[in-house]
TrEMBL record:
Residues 270-355 form the p-hydroxybenzoic acid efflux pump subunit AaeA-like beta-barrel domain. This is Membrane fusion protein, multidrug efflux system. It comes from Muricoccus roseus. It comes from the Bacteria. Residues 70-262 form the Multidrug resistance protein MdtA-like barrel-sandwich hybrid domain.
Amino acid sequence: MNARTSAIPESETRTSAAPAQPRRSRFRRVLPLIALLVLAGGAAGGTWYWQVGRFMESTDNAHVGGDIAVLSSRIEGDVVRILVADNQPVEAGQPLIELDRQDWQARRDQAAAALAEAEANIGTLAAQIGQARAQVASAEAQIAEAEAERVRAVADAGRAGTLAQGGYGTREAVDRTVANRRKAEAALTAAQAGLESARGAIPVLEAQSRSASARRDAARAALALAESDLDHTVIRAPYAGIAGNRAAQLGQHVRAGQNLIAVSPTADRLYVTANFKETQLRRIREGQPVELSVDAGGTLHGVVQSLAPATGAQFSLLPPENATGNFTKIVQRVPVRIAVDPGQAVAHLRPGLSVEAEVDTRDDPHGPRSLFGAAAAMIRGR
């Protein structure tokens, strides 16, 4: 084989090597253009990073949040009606679940009867107080009458004694007038005692009236509580949203505090919670614009609403304690609440969806964010 190879003519070897030279020549001519493009791309990328990129703080540790209301029963009873289906939109105050109200209606009627009885007792005592005051006035009149009778009896006794001493009256007349005087004095004493008794009855009746008023207030509070319990037989939506996670079943006996159904807020009341690293918080401030990329599809815009007062680890069930022998430093994250700008197509949003958040921390957040816009802004700045 070596003999055959060595036997190839030299002219053929020169002919096969000839096309390689034009290729190298063309590559040498294109190489400066490639280098120029690379340098231009690097300059543009560097410009974008210096003008925009270094001010962007992003994280994929973010999710859509919403204040979900988990509704439970405040009373005990049987489920008699379920008025909504799963995942059904509901309005604020709309009935969702109804419990048996028969027992609670009876308790309400009982409380109403107790209140009526207490109010009747107050009326009776008021009448008795009025009667006692009339008795006081009558006793005062009786005292005046008894006093007048005593004065007359004393005068009669004096005149009878004077006549008897002068020999013009009899001993019988004197004794009779003296007896009338003593009788009048006793009647006056009895009238005064009756007045004191009538006056003493009034404070007692007034104390009983205050006690009756207290019982009336207690009965009124019991009636209000019974009416509240009766109203709680109907579980209503606290706000407009979507019903879900229904645990109540028709005919089920539920107890107070048992979770029955949940209401999720509508899409326009949702927000985003982004957990940024502590090293990213240096430039993040309230009011800065945020671009949100939803994993379920779509890009939204929002603003930084607030920063949590502590890291997420501090709100956990078992907060970390760094004063231990084995310590490993871990970058902490701080929840940042982001409000979604209104007027966007957010109907597909649901609490719990994953989101990627990017905060623009520039002093002028309305400046261009694209590569060419940043380059143009830099050129204009020159």
